[in-house]
Amino acid sequence: MNIVIISGPVQIRDNNIFIKQLSDISSRYNITVQSLNADLLSGVRHIQFAVEKAIRSFGSGKNTANNLGMEIMLYASGSRQIEKALELGVKNGENRVAIVLVGENVTDEALFDVRTLLNSEDASIVDYSDSKKEDLLKIFNITAAELEAVGEDKIPELVLERVALVDVIK
Fold this sequence. Notes:
16% strand; 3 strands
């Protein structure tokens, strides 16, 4: 199973059209294509871990969502609630996105098609930065006591912990 992450800024005039474009690419190449708000991700490990957990949940028949893209969103959000998972989605306007392509047929053509949707490509927008701190603390319910115990530099690891705990919550 191939997993490729492409990220960069994108101006979305109509979210429904953007999601339809991703869906068309998904159908054309028989792969999963899922977009995530890069400002709510703590790094590449966060995405990869969520994708791997989602693939395993489908493999074992323990998936909550009916498609791999939404299962990825659930794990990435650290929650089993679709409403919370959708907070990691894209919206109308300027977005910094990470687009995950998963499947056996992740070809150069599929990557090209996804890249054409972005204003430019910038892998660094997925990386953790101080500008993401407050949003990550809020969305992943990271407490002041946790930060005091492990230090603010461990925020990405605390986010991964939330992703790991999704299986326990099931």
